[in-house]
Amino acid sequence: MFFEYLKGQQQMNLQINRQLNGLHDNPKVKQDLKVVIPQIQDEESWFSAWQTVGEKRERQADFALACAYFALAQFYLNKHDSRKKVTVHRYLNNFYRSHPGLNYVEYKVPYENSYLPALKVVVNPGAHKTLLIINGFDSFMEKILAVTDFFKGTDYNLILFDGPGQGRALIDNGILFTPYMEKAVTQLLDYFELQEVDALGVSWGGYFVIRAAAYEKRIKQVICFDFFYDGLNVFLNGLPSETKERLRSALEQGNETSVEKLLKPFIQTNADLKFKLNKGFENTGTKTLCSLLKQIALHNVSGLGKKVTADVLLLAGSKDQYVPFQDLALEQAELRSARSLTTKIFTEKTGGEQHCQAGRYDLALNAVRIFLNQPALPGHETSI
Fold first, then answer.
1. Over 90: is that where the pLDDT of 193 sits?
2. What is the C-alpha separation between 340 and 265, in angstroms, rounded?
3. 104-230+299-379: what fold?
4. What are the residue boundaries of the structural domains of the chain, listed by start?
5. How far apart are the first and last CA of the chain?
6. Residue 127's pLDDT band (cuts 50, 70, 90)
7. Summary mean pLDDT of the chain
8. What does the alpha-carbon distance between residue 69 and residue 382 come to, in Å, rounded to a whole number?
9. In the β-sheet with 381-383, what is the strand arrangement from edge to edge?
10. What angle do CA 279, 45, 96 make, to 5 degrees?
């Protein structure tokens, strides 16, 4: 179930649901929410409220709750804010303290002049297959590491990593976001000497995994959790059609003045757009709206999907606030060369209608297990 904690604040509600997935019924969480929610008025009060309950639960050695609360506290902090890095590491420290039974080894995979943090996770001793998991726009690999139990009983062990512009690769190493994720994926596969893998992309990773599979034929099965077709469509989602058309025209012309003029009224009133732009500047290192949106526009499946020959699973939420649901048909058409194409649509009736099935990760992960165990027949398009 997707919970609305803050009336009219769709962006903030999504983040709370993401971090508190599976914790909503915890009496301590209910107690903390009664204190936190009335305090939240803006990004600064958001930080203070979550930071305070995070510190409280950390002192009480309730590391799982502290982890979730510090993850929320850091979320809207600007990269220039001295509190950002400290809070991120408090989130990560509490994550590992709350998961002492995880069986993993940490690696530093060389990349450009630095490294990508990576984890090799043994979920099923004796498993014969590897599932590579690719992050999204604003997450850390630990977010997926928290749900590795869903892969117990499969023939898979996992490799997770923070890629360019993600997690600690960005926060600690300054490696910036790139549309060309296949370079990082190839580096990982070579580093771990893997000849064949399956791959799952989470959120924006739904684009990255398609991109990787288009160029890296060692990937045999592809899962988009969720599907992701066009980065610019994601950034401009919810804006009036006329504004989006004028913005695209201004971007093609490189008209920074027009781009700023068109976006300024929405930045002031649209919390979701404001977040995406601020995080986009942090991820990409760009300085102007025009240069940022031109970078984001490169994250596009159009013309790329035809190169994907793996088995593909697309997950989609009918009320996804980030990825326009109408783009699903475009992506399905693009993936015409896939060995097989399977689509799972989640609705309010079945649950999981939000972005990446926020509030009901279990539904998505069950669909993933089914696909990994029984991929579709070659040349078939199915729905589950």
1. yes
2. 44
3. Rossmann fold (3.40.50)
4. 10-98, 104-230+299-379, 232-297
5. 20
6. very high
7. 92
8. 39
9. 104-111, 114-121, 156-161, 129-134, 197-202, 219-225, 311-317, 340-346, 381-383
10. 65
